[in-house]
């Protein structure tokens, strides 16, 4: 999606930068982990396929995917030294409540946490998710969020519930839980309060 190809979101603990071709080898390396594939319900791709997916996202003005590379460090390209994951947000229209104008987003956080235990439970994923949600609400008009998570990924399920998501469905075939958050006026105020420290910059 071209709308955010040069957008950087600077938080207190993490920075979200556009997912570029320079990040593909690192991400591809992470996704060779069978554990991470299982936790994120992902199929392994070749390096060439990963590059093609990155190009299609970056160059397609009508792409319905928003991807940011999640890094720990200070502001500025040179100071963001530690990459820890990618956060995805995919948009879709919700017709379930006969509201075709409702714009929804499915959130997925692919992180390196399962590979490096020292990064678990330190709030990086939570802040990144709040930052992406806030961007979606403020800049893209998102009114509803969903997260589909493997049933065994208890850490992610717990995190989303702390962010006010409610469990709405369980798919026993795919061993997957769906959590949802409707952005009411109250939830919008809460979300913007949680992210009032975030700065939007150019990459």
From TrEMBL:
Residues 13-166 form the N-acetyltransferase domain. Keywords: Acyltransferase, Transferase. It comes from the Eukaryota. The keyword Metal-binding does not apply. SUPFAM superfamilies: Acyl-CoA N-acyltransferases (Nat). One of its GO terms (molecular function) is N-acetyltransferase activity. The keyword Metal-binding does not apply. Belongs to the acetyltransferase family. GNAT subfamily. This is N-acetyltransferase 9. It comes from Cathartes aura (Turkey vulture).
């Amino acid at each position: 999606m071209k709308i955010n190809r040069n957008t950087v979101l600077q938080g207190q603990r993490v920075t979200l930068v556009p997912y570029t071709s320079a990040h593909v080898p690192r991400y591809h390396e992470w996704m060779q982990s069978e554990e991470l594939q299982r936790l994120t319900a992902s199929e392994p791709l070749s390096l060439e396929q990963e590059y093609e997916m990155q190009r299609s996202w970056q160059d397609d003005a009508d792409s319905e995917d928003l991807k940011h590379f999640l890094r720990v460090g200070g502001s500025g390209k040179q100071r963001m030294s530690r990459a820890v994951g990618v956060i995805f947000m995919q948009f879709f229209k919700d017709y379930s409540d006969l509201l075709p104008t409702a714009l929804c987003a499915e959130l997925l956080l692919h992180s390196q946490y399962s590979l490096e235990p020292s990064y678990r439970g330190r709030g990086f994923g939570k802040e990144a998710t709040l930052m992406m949600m806030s961007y979606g609400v403020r800049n893209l008009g998102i009114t509803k969020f969903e997260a589909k998570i493997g049933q065994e990924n208890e850490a992610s399920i717990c995190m989303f519930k702390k962010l006010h998501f409610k469990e709405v469905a369980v798919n026993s075939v795919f061993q997957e839980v769906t959590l949802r958050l409707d952005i009411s006026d109250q939830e919008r105020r809460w979300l913007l309060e949680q992210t009032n420290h975030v700065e939007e910059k150019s990459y």
